[in-house]
Amino acid sequence: MVRLASPQEDRARSLHHEAIIITCHDHIPTPVDLPELQAGGITAKFALMGADAWLDAPSRDEFLASIQEYHGWCKKTLLSFERMLTAIEGLPADLLQVRSAADVLRAKREGRVGILLGSEGGKLIEGRLELLRVFHRLGLRQMQLTWAYTNQLSAGETELDSLGACDGYFFSEHLQTAARGEKVRGLTDLGRQVIAEMNRLGVIVDLCHLSRPAMREAVAISQKPVLAGHTTAKALGHRLPSLTDEEIRAIADKGGVIGLHFMTHMLTGRLEPPATMDEVMAQIDYIIKIGGVDILGLGPDYFYDPDGSFRRNSVQQVSLPAGLEDSGKMLNLTRALVEHGYSDNEIHKILGGNLLRLLKDVIH
Asked: What does pTM read for this prediction?
């Protein structure tokens, strides 16, 4: 917990109340987390309607089998869309679907929480551009091309030059190394077409969990700024999905945004004990040092695991920093930014201004 002297506390509360606060990676179904979103002053969140795996599978074997399955994801994701859209329609005084940057501003003005629909992986379109267009009509505004493993659109981050680079990855059964003399794969031809269509439609290209060659190519070929929605700097939290300094600079040069991952293993490289607020701030300071203050947003990766199935399937312990365990505690981050000497303008950018700019640049 960050404790400030009275004038600083007043400043932090005022900034937090005024700010557009956006989180760009969240698995908790709304309205389950509505009390926390409201308590934390969240203006909008990117709600993930699907992933390229059965995250709450009853067993690890079924979870791992789902990673290799390519069919049925459209139906699963459509059902997720239906549940979320029904929830939004049922709570019109509290929730607002975000289809554009203007909707975020409207949510702030009206005291509602904006919900932007996204996906952690591209299996939902089952290899068809037509289905991407359908999901866009329903409100899809962000999509990762894959979640960790290779699909129809791209190689995933689990394709490596050597197993030595895996950094204790959760799901090591499916780590792959390039054959001797071969390169790690990148985007497929279809993946390149999907990026072009996402640019045309106004869907944010999220780089997370791509193979390194795929990530570099996606940044290069996208005609719009890109997002790395939940990650950290590898220099401080040496994990497979973390970003090198070169990758941070490439995203910044594209006008893109990095959403800071809140989980301990991504922030620090260790599994336990939970990260401290000082370790959260160390990541913030470092990413801004490398990429500038316009690059950083919030991608906490809050996830819904009421029966503990994801924790069991992932085997390794996951934890969140003390004081940032849920959306309702977001004021603690504003307090820490004040304590670390960030200006009002910089704090507004980090809390949501940079993500709002990304929405304006990408979404029509």
From this structure: 0.96
